Amino acid sequence: MTFFRVLGTELTKLRRSKVTWVTLAACTLMVAFGAFFMWMMMHPDAARSLGLLGQKASFAFAGQATDWKSYLTFIVEMGGFGGLVFCSVIVAYVFGREYVEGTAKNMLALPVPRSLFVAVKLLVSAAWWAVLTGWIIVVAWIAGSMLQMPAYSAQLLRTAATRLAVLAALSFSCSTIVAWISVETRGYFAPLGFAIFAMVLATVFGHTGWGPWVPWSIVGLYSGATAPESALEWGSYAVIAATFLVGSGLTIRHEVFADNTQ
Fold this sequence. Notes:
The chain is mostly helical. The chain has one domain. Helix content is 80%, strand content 0%. The chain has 11 helices and no strands. Helix 5 packs antiparallel against helix 10 and helix 8 packs parallel to helix 11. The chain starts with a helix and ends in a 5-residue tail after the last helix. The relative contact order is 0.14.
């Protein structure tokens, strides 16, 4: 019963928060940007007449395929690094808000195992991120249908959906470090700053031989944004699993031994 009460409380907090709607809007805009990019590729003359395309951009678009496969590939690539940011925002908010709003001392004083709070907060963060991932897939399908691009197949959509789901799991596994930084620094800014720094690391190491062994670079590699997925090895997924366990363990350790006056 205690678990469900804590879970219900966390879900109520998230439902009443404006952050949930902000992340939903941000994911929608991300897909809209991908669809708009494809529209420009399909209608370069119209985009140029509206001042949306310059000569260099027109040259870059030359020879690019404008079909469902290219579109969904682009969405998956954006879902890689974009997912790292969105997931980090959710986790930083869920864990950091207790300290920013001054409710951490009340939470830690309750006759409930502190590790349970961490587990429920991770579960709620994962659930919301899963909802956002599903929303991205749905909006991508709607936007692609509106563009009336050729070569659509249900298999292409299923493949893209599967890859986005895997990317969501990889991003969430990396975000446990963000949870730990949130409780350690008692706020939002440090974990969000770390998330941006992690993206820089992912970009830098993603183009080197170290990429398959850096958690955040692994997300970029799997999405295809920095290199082909074939660059990944089984050890890369072990690194992701280790990152999840280390981040979760550090977060639990902090909360278990934290002074309830903080």
